[in-house]
Amino acid sequence: MTTPTLGDDDHVLAGEYVLGTLPHDERRRVEQRLAHEPALQKAVEAWEMRFHPYSALAEPVAPSDYLWARIQRSLAQKTPATQAVKSAAQQASTAPTPMPKRARKGVWHSLPAWRAAAGLGMAAALVMGILLINPSSVPVTPQYMVVLMAPQTDSAGWVVQASTRQEIELIPLGTFEVPEGKALEFWTKADDWQAPVSLGLIEPGGPIRLRLDELPPLEDDQLFELTLEDATGSPTGLPTGPIEFIGRAVEI
Amino acid sequence: MPSPWPRMLLMRATLGVGPSSGSQGVTDVSTSCDHAALITRCAQGDQQALKTLYQHEGARLLGVVMRIVKDRGMAEDIVHDACLNIWQRADTFDPSRGSGRSWMFSVARHLALNAIRYRDREVGFDAEFSANGTDAEHDEGQEEGVSPSTPVSEAFDWQTGERIDECLKTLTPERRNCVLHAYVDGLSHAEIAEHTGTPLGTVKAWIKRSLLRLRECMA
């Protein structure tokens, strides 16, 4: 799973990651590898250590008076890190919902982010088109539909169809390579839930049917996302890894 | 099939914060503040510890981030996010693997770098130059072709008194400038090429080789 020693290329890659010269997609690839490659992590840490003295070359800039107040307000909405993890884990082991009000609030509650994504109708239309000309993949007229987009590339990766409000089908539109030691975890959250609920780990490769028996019936605008988590799933019971695909249910 | 497809609301996340990049530092410049102990207290839920870190390092963090993102509002947003990250990820900090000061600066730097690289890709900047690095071969040729007739002046007053100075000193000024433009100013390969008037392939090769040289020297 991990290589004990790194080649020059990876040492250079780690150095470029720390310098900051890598383009966005390569940065993400390095970050994904870091999660499960201690040798690369060590190389990055070594570069951080080597270059850190040069952070002194940037002139200090006094923050606005209200920046700390803002940070404090944001902190107030979170419970301390370790306690939060503990309570989330306890919650996760007892009840699927509701979850404590914390964690990943930024993503799940970020209205501007959702609005920014509203302009992606073209891609959605394209996906719909694919489904229309390929009726074999639509056995029953779905009541709800979700297109899950990759936030980094704005490309559609999965479709969720629900022919009833208690059963959904997750259909891959392409291939997705899960990094070694990682897994895709599927989450959903309706507007009035306090936190997302895990629908389990997803094995990419084919359509997957899921019963939502323990959840309230599917509703319009319900969020779905796939995040990259440890192979055994999120340790906290809440999404912790990067969002790979995300979308919102639409009633048809 | 029903023909009028309903509105589609598609979502995208702002920033998926990646896994902890880890980090360390050679020395703590600010000796009046025990960063590691304060980060440990953050992990225990002590907000005063975060405030102390902010009071000590807020201006320097903002300075580092400002140099990279070059926008005051965005830089403050990033320092805000960095402080929340430091708070939430404090329990992942391992004092045996590096200095607390370097760890917290790395958190902020990588948030800043992610933000500008994400913006770069939105405008397609650097896209055709990115990826693979298979152009290393002809970089070699290009590099020899570039022989500035006038000596290149230092872009940075870079002597910090740390050990890495000795290693950075072994690089030619133009290569040293490339490395520091990247680390301090957050410039991409293409931006460094444009800024210094050096061919892109040469910049890439210089940085690559400078990294190998620095690693060897620091070993």
UniProtKB/TrEMBL annotation, chain A:
Superkingdom of origin organism: Bacteria
Disordered, as annotated region: 82-102
Cellular compartment(s): Cell membrane; Membrane
Pfam families per the UniProt record, alphabetical: RskA_C (PF10099)
Bilayer disposition of the protein: Single-pass membrane protein
Record's keyword terms, sorted: Cell membrane, Membrane, Transmembrane, Transmembrane helix
Transmembrane segments: 112-133
Bias kind Polar residues: ranges: 82-96
Occurrences of domain Anti-sigma K factor RskA C-terminal (ranges): 120-243
Main location (coarse class): membrane
UniProt-recorded name of the protein: Regulator of SigK
Source organism per UniProt: Halomonas dongshanensis
